Amino acid sequence: MSISVLRAHRRAVLGAALLMAAVLVALLVSCDSGARRSGPLRQRLGGSDSPSAPSQPGAGAPIPAGRSSFALTVAGAKEERTVHLYRPSGLTGQVPVVVMLHGGYGSGTQAENSYRWDDAADAGRFLAVFPDGTSRSWNAGGTCCGPAAGDNVDDVAFLRDVLATLGGRIDVDPRRVYVTGISNGGAMAYRMACETDLFAAVAAVSTTMLVDCSSAAKASVLHIHGTEDKSIRYDGEQGDPFSRRYPGIDGPPVPEVAAAWRAIDDCPQPSVTVEGVLTTSAAACPDGRAVELVTIDGAGHQWPGSDAKPLTQLLGADKPSDALDATTRIWDFFAAHPAPLR
Predict the structure, then answer these.
(1) Residue 252, Cβ neighbours under 10 Å: how many?
(2) What is the pTM of this model?
(3) pLDDT tens-digit profile of 39-81?
(4) Which helix (H) or strand (E) holds 105?
(5) What confidence tens digit (pLDDT) does each residue in 201-244 have?
(6) Going along 187-296, which residue ranges are E strands?
(7) How far is 239 from 341, CA to CA, in rounded Å?
(8) Rounded to an integer, what is the distance from CA 255 to the centroid of its chain?
């Protein structure tokens, strides 16, 4: 082989290696549906953070149709945070609100892009809200997770302020305010349900509950979890660590979380149905509330029904289950369970 051919070959190999490295870095930052071997903080949830530039009206301006965002800083916080919004065209009157909390190392825009919540908002006629955590993490309790927990960020206050700000910009239906999340974001959703009375219902995916919930306000609860989740385990044993600095999460077993919420809501024992790999434990509770646990046999740490990302799976991410469309299932649950009339 001539020297010139050899140099050309080396340049081609180097270029390919740099391209692959760039792809891997982008995937690690954007976070797909959950890394099997890297714990709840590194969920590799997929999707570009910025497919298009949303409009950015002031925090007090009316919310425009389509995608937009605003910045918010809670008193005493170190940094400004961004809240991403999607308002369906023609959405008027009292508006339902769904707050979607991204997983660790995700972002608000990533969650919006990955789980098709904009489509669900168009179909269900609600405002979808995607806040950013601190350094891509939430302080969900029990030392979870990452920088937000390390700095003891008051994410409860932040999310309260998000809802208060929205209330000044759009006519929010107070009986139809909901929160959902995956992994670190799902644990934060539980924290909000345990420590505030803001939400009619909570839906949690691939997570557990890490705070004292003994004084919680009543709320409907839907939990979705795979039996082969190695990051936040169904049986409550310690999951795979993210790193030496951030050990794996061990929380109560998922069935115990559902049982705790049945006690909070004064529910009877649940009925259990099995359909293929899906096992649903559902309790119909007083005042129209419900507590449901959907278990997916063989599923890992992922958002069911989201798009599979082959490259992230090469890095260890679990393939999203196609046994359930979690976004549609969650919205249907929310729509059926507004807060009772007072």
Answers:
(1) 16
(2) 0.83
(3) 333 332 223 343 444 555 556 689 999 999 999 987 666 778 9
(4) none
(5) 999 999 999 999 999 999 999 999 999 999 999 998 887 766 55
(6) 201-205, 220-226, 271-275, 278-284, 290-296
(7) 41
(8) 20
